[in-house]
Amino acid sequence: MRFVWAVVAFVIAAVMIGAGIAQRTVFQGPSETTTTVQTQGSTPYTLIDGSVLTSTPGAQTLRVGGDGQVFVSYGRTSDVKAWLADTGYTAVTPGSDGGVQTSVVQPTVTASGQAAGRSPVDSDLWLEEYEQTGPLSTTFQLPSDMSVLIASDGTAPAPADISVTWPIDDSTPWAGPLIVGGGIALLAGLVLYLLGIRHVRRSRRPRRKGLPLPVTEPISIADADAAAKGVVSESPARRSRRAFIAVPALGMSAVLLAGCSADAWPQLAPSETPSPTATVIVPDGQFPPAVTEAQARRIVARVSTTVAQADAALDKTAAATRLTGPALAERETNYTLRAAIPDRAALPAIPAEPVQIILPQTTGAWPRTLMTVVESADAATPTTTIMMLTQENPWAEYKAAYVGNLEASTNLPELAAPYVGATQVPPDSSFLVMAPQKVAAAYADIINNGQNSASHGAFDTANDLLLSAIQDNKTKRTDELNQTGQGTAEISFSASAGPASPIALATLDTGAIVAVNVYESDTAKPTNKDAVIKLDNNPAVKALTGVDQSATGFTTTYSDQVFFYVPSQGSDDQIRLLGYRSSLLEAKVSP
């Protein structure tokens, strides 16, 4: 019976080991699948739709052939299509047969710029981009709402040799257990086989009988001595047979186990438990944020680098590529002054990092807004910069429109997470204690009339450092004029809302951070018809006007970029100053 069970064990072992080896060899499928995209090469851009990339689960490996410049980027499908709306491109979409199909899409809009020859490099719309000369290969895992853009330099036809590869799960989790189980069955069969042989050998021996007694054999002295010493000898033949039986079983197990890799075993490790995070509820129908955190940091770095280069070269044109509105106006004036006055100080640099706060607008249209708060990395001049950046259209870059410095004691209101974003508050919104378009004029009225202003009670003036700085400047300018022209000249001050439109982003408490532009002007005039206003101690006004004296006087204007927190309608809180930047804007001879 032992031989029967041994044979059964051998059969089971052969089946299990054979099945395990077959899973790792003849039955193992391919490790990846590839879809080839062959375009006509007639357009400068190729767009691979996100539905193609997600047609097979897993990471996507994109390979683009070519001998010249190869450019690849990816972004939200809606953003990429908006960027391509003014030019023809080749669209790659899923085909009816499970493959892909290509079609040429014609322009649908006319851009303000020149579409032909427009380089896709460094657009603020891309979440990531890759560029090199010659074939390019990269791996990513994009969702269905993102697409890939392929180009050369924006002028030459896009590379036509494209393929997308996905990995296929070819793991065989039962191969290892089958081979090991087969090895165990084989070992059990060998044991049963040995036991069967032993049983047969014992059954063939002569059995003892009571009478007559067997003939007594003589015992050799050597055997007797060995027995007396407790030594039992074994013949070489028996030892070699047992060794021969044990070695095949162990050798077979080692050989089989050597070919089992990690993917030949079931993965029984428990999955990691994610750490709890704060729950953020996104309103139904809300658009996604205009930019991701990575995009925002890259945009800030590009703005910082470009402005730093423009500051060094006093290049207004370069500055205009990353600045607009009040932020650009103050830089242009500063460049003019620094060109005329060697020791004129530059404006504070725009820091690139660390970016502490990112608040993108939630929108699918243009213009778009992004607010950031960046700390200065310079320990000698620690500052915290707050910026409002805007992107006018899909082909424009983000430009800083408002730039200010936060006070050290400033407490920002609670803001939404960067991946949630904030809605932009309309200028005429009635959901705030004061509409954004009225804030600049109301604040200017406080500058002009102080406590007599009708808006005085709406603002937290007690903790407003800008108001105190403006008052100090008024006193200083009056004292300077009295020292040189007392009795022959006078100075007057006035403030007004600047021409720049306000920008407002909502906070979590339904209030808003509002950036506005305020102009402060002072006019010095002679009170005697024979007197003149001289600029001996005012090289800045002299440089801007081109004269050193005037019989009609001079008007000097400062531009204030002011950031406020404006509470929601019905709140008992006051409008609170968050930060500001005040700079000389212009000077002219009074009429």
Structure description:
Residues 289-588 form the DUF8094 domain. It holds the Pfam family DUF8094. The protein is of the alpha+beta class and 591 residues long. The chain has four domains: 1-29 and 170-199; 32-167; 287-422, Nuclear Transport Factor 2, Chain: A, CATH 3.10.450; 425-591, no CATH class. The chain contains twelve helices and 21 strands. The chain has helices at residues 2-24, 50-53, 77-83, 175-204, 221-228, 236-258, 293-313, 316-319, 325-340, 436-449, 465-485, 539-545; strands at residues 32-38, 45-48, 60-64, 69-76, 89-94, 100-105, 128-133, 136-140, 146-151, 161-167, 355-360, 368-375, 384-391, 399-406, 489-497, 503-506, 512-526, 533-534, 549-550, 554-566, 576-589. Strands 11, 12, 13, 14, 15, 16, 17, 20 and 21 form a nine-stranded antiparallel beta sheet that branches. A hairpin with a 7-residue loop joins β11 (355-360) and β12 (368-375). α1 runs antiparallel to α4 and α4 packs antiparallel against α6 (236-258). The longest helix has 30 residues, at 175-204. Residues 226-247 and 271-281 have low confidence and may be disordered.
Largest sheet: 9 strands, antiparallel
The count of domains is 4
Work out the number of β strands.
Answer: 21
Weakly predicted, low-confidence segments = 226-247, 271-281
Question: What does the radius of gyration come to?
Answer: 42 Å
Individual helix count: 12
**How far apart are the termini?**
124 Å
What's the rounded overall pLDDT mean?
Answer: 85
Shape: elongated
Q: What share of the residues lie within helices?
A: 25-40%
Backbone structural class = alpha+beta
Strand content: 25-35%
Transmembrane segments: 174-195, 243-265
Domain DUF8094: 289-588
Organism: Microbacterium trichothecenolyticum
Protein name: DUF8094 domain-containing protein
